[in-house]
Amino acid sequence: MATEDMLASLGVEGATSAAHALSLPAEAYGNDSRVEAMWAMKAYNHAEVYFNLISSVDPKFLKLTKVDDKIYSSFRETFKELDIKVLNQDDLKSNEAKERWRPFCNQFEGVVQDFNYGTLLRLDCEKDYTEENTMFATRIQFFAVEIARNREGHNDVVFKSKSGKS
Fold first, then answer.
1. Is 54 left (phi over 0), alpha (psi -120 to 50) or beta?
2. Domain locations in the chain as residue ranges
3. I want to staple 137 with a disulfide (CB 3.0 to 4.6 A). Which of 141, 160, 161, 164 is the partner?
């Protein structure tokens, strides 16, 4: 079922309830599969909007947050050697990586809204979101990687292929 159909099937009251439910702290739910499905839908919608954005607007002109410069400089200072063109899940998920990412991410608490929300991140920036090319990351990790991809020209191939520019 398409996301739009799912949301439409909820109706106004159901969609409002879903939005309210997603704003509550995770501790309020435990492991409720309905909430997980809503989060997955929200993450998918975010991914779809972002990919459409980099497909239609030259990525080097995009500003994703009010603090893009701070995110980018801190990211590149902390992760100088990280190949952002094609990520390996271990770059974000291994125990060693988590130890490096934690202080980076936590510095944006209260600076970037919902900095630790779950988001979908493409592994290979030249490809679309697919099951094989997508991983789950925090919102600040998404911003850090995608701001860098935009500034360093890695997302240009998506824009050029979708817009017909050469």
1. alpha
2. 58-163
3. 141
Q: CATH assignment of 58-163, given 1.10.3560.10, 3.10.180.10, 3.30.750.24, 3.20.20.70?
A: 1.10.3560.10
Partners of 120 in the β-ladder: 136
**Stated pTM of the model:** 0.77
CB 137 within 8 A of CB 121: yes
Tell me 30's DSSP state: S
Instruction: Report the Cα 133 to chain-centroid distance in Å.
Output: 13
> Could you read off the pLDDT of 32-74 as tens digits, one per residue?
677 667 777 888 888 999 999 999 999 999 999 999 999 999 9
Greatest alpha-carbon span in the chain: 50
Task: Give the residue among 138, 121, 117, 137 at the shortest CA–CA distance from 129.
Answer: 121
**For residues 110 and 18, what is the distance between their CA atoms, to the nearest angstrom?**
24
Task: Give the separation between CA 145 and CA 98, rounded to whole angstroms.
Answer: 15
DSSP annotation of 65: S
Extract the tokens encoding 28.
Answer: 């309020």
